[in-house]
Amino acid sequence: MKPDRPRPAQWPAGFWEALQNSQWLSDTPAWTGHAHWTLGLPEAHWQLALLSTWALWEKEPHAPRRLHLLAHTEHPPSADDWASLAVDWPAFGPLAAECAQACWGLLPGLHRLVLAQGRLQLSLWVGSSLARDAWWRSTPHQTWGQPPNPTGPASTMVRQQVFLPPSRHKQESAWPARASARPVHGSAQPILDGSQPLMEPAPPRSQTAPPILVLGSGLAGASAARALAERGFRVRVLDAGTAPAQGASGLPVGLMTPHVSGDDNPLSRLTRAGLRMVLAHAQAHLRVSEDWSPSGLLERRMSGKARRGRWPEAWLSPHPSDTWALIDAAQDWFTPASAAQHHAAGLPAPEQSQAEEPKGIWHLQAGWMKPAALVASLLNHPLIEWHGQTTATHMHAQGQSWWVHDQQGRAHEGQQVVVALGPSSAELLQKLLPQAHWPLEPLRGQVTGGVMPGPESNQMPSHPVNGLGSFLPGVPMPDGPTWWYGSTYDHSRSEPVCLSQDQDSNLSQLAILLPLLADTWHPGEAKGVGLQHQGVDTPHAGEAYPTTLDASLRNWAGVRCTTHDRLPVVGPLEGAPGVHVLTALGSRGITLGLLCAEVLASQICGEPLPIDPAVAHLLRPHRFKKSNKSLI
Ligand SMILES: Cc1cc2nc3c(=O)[nH]c(=O)nc-3n(C[C@H](O)[C@H](O)[C@H](O)COP(=O)(O)OP(=O)(O)OC[C@H]3O[C@@H](n4cnc5c(N)ncnc54)[C@H](O)[C@@H]3O)c2cc1C
């Protein structure tokens, strides 16, 4: 099938020929019958290659439902770059505008940009590094074409791996010709997880194949179910609760914000990638100011907080050649907080010299989210079935299937299983693989909140503040706008009980975080009951809220699932093929849930990962090993 588009005069030399030579323009496109197709774009003109491919893919009746494009560039594209392309090729104008919208905050590293309502995914690596080369090499893809003199080791390596011997087109145009017809697996000895399909999943849309079973319907399970349903799988979600999100994800409201570290460590990179994903989902599916708010956030860098890292120095004084692009990209995420932003939080602007680390950071891509609303929106998909009051007790493999048994004596068949049970995951996994070591730690926490005070407390921040716990003002609840502060960290209990001592601790920490507010506002004393509730330890098992220790306050407690390295656990279970784990989202389930699910679904389907494969490797479930024992 040939495109009917007239050839614009301005195509770069050889571009049109390369486009025509590509698989998907032939009479029987190689991608026919594939649900998903991955194409690596040339480094030169990658933006134009993206736009033309996208436009042609939209017209092609047999095109795969999901198209994945890989690209790498030294310099992140600016909105102006996309606008100039739209001027030169007006037909691509709307597509270029969508790209311009998606291309923000492109710091060095891998970014997953979602286009065309999620049907088109762009994995874009900004900057060059050995990690970039390893990613390009180990990510299976077809190759779109290469510029006449490929520059950079990645292009050369890919060419060696994926090109067939030169075709006749080689002489006619300076461009290398067709990619091989079969998907090519990059490195013969993959050193990184996730680039190969783990197993051939049953045809997603088959009505006869058993569904994929997802155990748990908190942020982890709901995100996994959604990521798999988006790929065409039927998914059955089993949960012990009477409704979804009754574990830690029943948190009334939580913060979503990036982590900042001087070396831009994996957790920092994960949180930025996760935020990009959850913000896109929220914009498309949730009610702004009701279910979530992209309010921005002031992070106070409190002295004595050991975990507070520095900003990566390179972002403040980058190499001259990429100064502006890097500063622009960093400033899409955060800037030193201004005096006005401090005042809006009822805080004096800190005095500091130019040379110092900022004492306050303004996070632009941050805000609050009601996790239960997020979970509900994730589960709202025609291929997802939710079954409540189904407590999984154990599972076994039989033939091609897995059978999950529940407390009521029923057995549920699945072609694959995703374990996303939060702190209960360890028990089920231990039964499945008794030899294995699962250092998943329950970590109880409690938040305290109340109705927003009247005008007497004029120091009330207009946006969230964190730095010593988090304060979230103006969160709408059925009884009006509320504030929330949290949370506590308690390793000694694994039950979601509300404790008066935690309420005390929350209120005293709040007074340190917002000292001026504490001068004029005394939550908990409004009805004369103050904080004198020692000993009133009210158990509750994951009720939404409130569990009230004080008539004027509300408290909520839940149990997180954590690991000692503070990273999530995501990936296939060795020793139980077809079983996958997604848990240990710690205190960052809102920010990380969707991203981790995307990692998992990409691993299951052999698609490019949304994060650097080296970082995905750090999340694998079998990273915990007991010494001298043969364990996972
Ligand atoms: C006090 C507190 C404050 C927090 N604040 C924030 C915040 O500001 N920002 C943020 O991003 N994160 C925050 N978190 C963390 C966030 O809530 C978690 O990371 C997230 O909810 C974890 O989701 P999950 O799906 O892994 O676990 P859960 O939400 O606990 O889900 C597990 C599910 O498994 C089900 N289940 C358990 N056992 C079984 C079984 N045997 N069979 C079937 N179903 C079962 C449960 O019913 C539950 O639905 C906070 C957590 C707490 C406790």
Task: Explain what the structure shows.
With 632 residues, the protein is of the alpha/beta class. It has 18 helices and 27 strands. The strands form 6 sheets. The protein has an 8-stranded mixed sheet with strand order 11-12-10-20-21-22-19-25, with helices on one face. The protein has a 6-stranded mixed sheet with strand order 14-7-6-18-27-26, with helices on both faces. Strand 15 and strand 16 form a beta hairpin. Helix 5 (130-138) packs parallel to helix 6 (153-162) and helix 8 packs parallel to helix 13. The longest helix is centred in the middle third of the chain and has 20 residues, at 266-285. It is globular and about 70 Å long. The relative contact order is 0.13. The structure holds flavin-adenine dinucleotide.
